[in-house]
Amino acid sequence: MRLTLPRFGRRARQTEQLVLAWDGRALAYVQARQEAADRYRVQRFGVLRAEGDKPGEDLARQLTAAGLRGKAVRAMLRTEQYQMLQIDAPAVPPEELKTAARWQIRDMVNMHLDDLTLDVLKVGDERVRASGSIFVVAAPNAVIRGVMETAQAARCSVDVIDIQELAQRNLQSALARRAGASERAHAAIVMSDDQMALLTICAHDELFYTRRIDLGAGFMQAPWGGSSATAQGEGGEIPLAQEDERAQRLVVEIQRSLDLWDRTWPMLVLDRIGVQAGTRTAEMAQWLSRDLGHSVTPLDASPLFPGFEGGSEVDRRLCWPLLGVLLRSEGRQP
Question: For the whole model, what pTM was predicted?
Answer without folding.
Answer: 0.88
